[in-house]
Amino acid sequence: MQLWGPVNAGKSSLLNALCGQTLAAVGHEPGLTRDVIEGSFEHQGFTIRLFDAPGVWAGGTALDAAAQQLAHAWRQQADLTLELSPTPVESRPWLLQSRADEQPAGAAPRVSVHEPATLRALKDRLIEHFFGPLRRLPPGRRFALHPGLRADLAALSEGSLNADELRAKWLD
Ligand SMILES: Nc1nc2c(ncn2[C@@H]2O[C@H](COP(=O)(O)OP(=O)(O)OP(=O)(O)O)[C@@H](O)[C@H]2O)c(=O)[nH]1
Ligand SMILES: [Mg+2]
Asked: Are residues 82 and 114 in the same domain?
């Protein structure tokens, strides 16, 4: 999951708060983050990996432009982009009003690193998004299977793939 939004939206602060450790530098200078920084947290027995990235910024130097290219490249690979806006905004999927303790509320869900309840709500929502279907399975079936392996196991059970082929492809 990738954090996205203007400089100073609070992306790095949110990465640190969700992960419970200082992984990224934070501060009020715009364009502080120039690299992609990875973190992860566990919640309800599941792990979420997330990436902080340089903020979106029209101004700045060539170095800032390079940082933004990096952010765009990472965003394209992300399985989910969580967009932050430090000002009140309309409601859109996965758009959050960040630094919400400083601002009047807009229509979008709020998050503030100073309000633990908003961080918990965000974690709950992310777990539901990524693992909800899995959690609704009986406990004995709660594991993720690579779609290719699932298809090959089905082929094995139908007799159109033999055990040696399966072993060569997945175990050797
Ligand atoms: N009051 C308040 N301040 C916050 C919150 N989150 C971040 N800040 C402050 O906002 C400023 C910017 O925070 P960063 O986390 O560095 O913002 P960023 O989006 O990573 O910024 P860039 O790396 O420049 O793109 C810092 O001074 C933070 O302390 C929040 O939830 N509440
Ligand atoms: Mg940052």
From this structure: yes
